[in-house]
Structures
1.
Amino acid sequence: MEFDHRCHKVQAPKFDCLLFDLDDTLYPMSSGIAARVKKNIEDYMVEKLGIEESKIENLGNLLYKNYGTTMAGLRAIGYTFDYDEYHSFVHGRLPYENIKPDPVLKHILKNLRIRKHIFTNGDKDHAVRSLKRLGLEDCFEGIICFETLNPPCPSPPSDGEGRIFDIAGHFARPGSTAAELPRTPVLCKPNVDAMEEALRIANVNPHKAVSTSHLTPPQKDRFFSSSCRLTVC
């Protein structure tokens, strides 16, 4: 008897792993966390690095746009500071009580029968506290965070003195481009090296491939960030 017509090829899973951003992705912007983070970063720049308050907004925008995070940009242009102190200042005073448990999201995540990791530029303590507030601490295989990608900063905190690259002055000159900017020692999204390192840590094969606009080279991974939100109906 022929059974060929009843045989179906078993397809391999479309994805190996899902990488989820954390901030303003797993919890909403209405929590006010993002606004407080921005304010705390600005306060750190003034109080700890001695940057003039009148320059903060433009400088912060330039650093974020060109380096992915303000912290990475500050290190690139010449500021040195203790990473743990920075994270404590920026995240330690956040209103975590504004992040509420999300049982619907937890149900969705628990029913996604696929490996899941958090991939955030934030520090581990911030990620753990946020996930606990959401009730999602047992929904992910691991957390890829700032400490995962970066060694402790060996330099002492800076008083803001020394040779600081004038990024605002750089872009004020006609013909200046981002290609001429100093490199940052901080590894973070959206840097391709950070993406590839996250894939390595998560043990995801980047070469068998459904490509996305978020990660290069093509991979089986999808990256859920604040620009690619889960919609819960």
2.
Amino acid sequence: MIETVTVTGSTNADLIGRLGSGESLADGYWLRARRQSGGKGRGGRAWVSPEGNIYASTIVNLRDTDPAAHTLSMVAGLAVWRMVTDRLKVQNRAKVLLKWPNDVLVSGAKIAGILLERHGSVIVTGIGINLSHAPDIADRKTTSLADENSEMDANPDQAMLDLAACFSDELAIWRDEGTRSLFARWQAAAHPVGTQISVHESDGAIVAGTFAGLADDGGLRLCLANGAVRTIHAGDVSLIAEG
């Protein structure tokens, strides 16, 4: 079920609030806003949310048999990657890459953002996708499907239906096949092993190296200049080629 509202502060905040008041929401429920006045991304950053793009949040009720909850960020990333890739002309599809942990890039520019928040045994997954226009952000490149010569009309209603279908598919695979399959499929859609990257850690430190794949828990394996490999579990990753 997709519920659409004209405007709200934040779809994630709305769902967290409803869960906090005791409301029960089923898997597959989506709250979508045509515009947000207080959208947010990872690290508390503001997510610019004018009309014409996708701003939506969905519910995953965790089961005892589910893989680790934090890996749902990769489930969401793959769902967005599929939806975006399907909308681009064939010659442009190879430009779509996943960047750890859950960014979706086209030609090195961010086209989508994902934010996971937990309330008890429920994960609220917020997704923003630039369909018609990209926000102007000082410290990073952004793009939209319209900027990338999308194969399809950037109709937010149809795009939302397609996103929900892709997420449902990826969630089922995550539950049926576990993280080994998830990580392999995520890696196939991501920047390749050996890509030069830098990681801005929460303490302000910046460490550079090459991408060495994913750890068993989904962490980023970073090969340092001295050959040592570190596993990163939190931080902002930049591809050196992005500049």
